[in-house]
Amino acid sequence: MQLTQYTDYTLRTLIFLGLNPERRCTITEISDAFNINRNHLVKVVHQLSTSGWILTVRGKNGGMTLNMPPEEINIAAVVRDTEPHMDLLECFDMATNNCCIAPVCKLRGVLYEARKAFMGVIERYSLADVLENREMLAPLLYIPSGPESVIEKPQ
After folding, report:
1. 101-130, pLDDT tens digit by residue?
2. What is the C-alpha separation between 41 and 94, in angstroms, rounded?
3. Domain 5-85+126-140 belongs to what architecture?
4. Do residues 81 and 65 touch, judged by C-beta distance below 8 A?
């Protein structure tokens, strides 16, 4: 099973914002920190804002922040919000299923159970849990770990 790149970028954006609670961050900052396509990130940020996970402000001093404390952002809820269906096999969607053994196949039940277990595990975690190692995450994203720290990204 693999989450989409869209969900990956969504989670990375939330991590970046969670590491910067005291200020607004920009799409360019996040794109540069993770070396990901800015245009993809624009779409991610739009959905995060529309879904209420983040607040955005346009203009010269604009940017984005989390819309709630990291403890209130459940990882499974974010994944459910960004993954369109979590169909592991074609037969998970009866409207598009063309598999001839689907009516008697036991594999579908096994993978349904696996998906349920996966979601059950991530249901137990919040963004705050993912940010517990801030002192190790921040330098990798060129985020100062204290008010006097300045970390410059190499050119």
Report:
1. 888 888 888 988 999 999 999 999 999 999
2. 32
3. Orthogonal Bundle (1.10)
4. no
Give the CA count within 13 Å in the CB-facing half-sphere of 18. 26
The residues spanned by each domain of the chain are 5-85+126-140
pLDDT of 144 higher than 90: no
The residue ranges of DSSP E strands in the chain, in sequence order, are: 54-57, 63-66
Nearest to 68 by CA among 21, 9, 134, 12: 21
Q: Give the three-class secondary structure for 64.
A: strand
pLDDT tops 70 at residue 41: yes
Spell 31-54 as b/e; 16+ CB within 10 A means b. Answer: bebbebeeeebeebbeebeeeebb
Mean pLDDT of 16-20: 96
Residues 6+ apart with CB under 8 A from 13: 30, 41, 44, 45, 48, 54
Least confident of 28-32, 62-66, 89-93, 117-121: 89-93
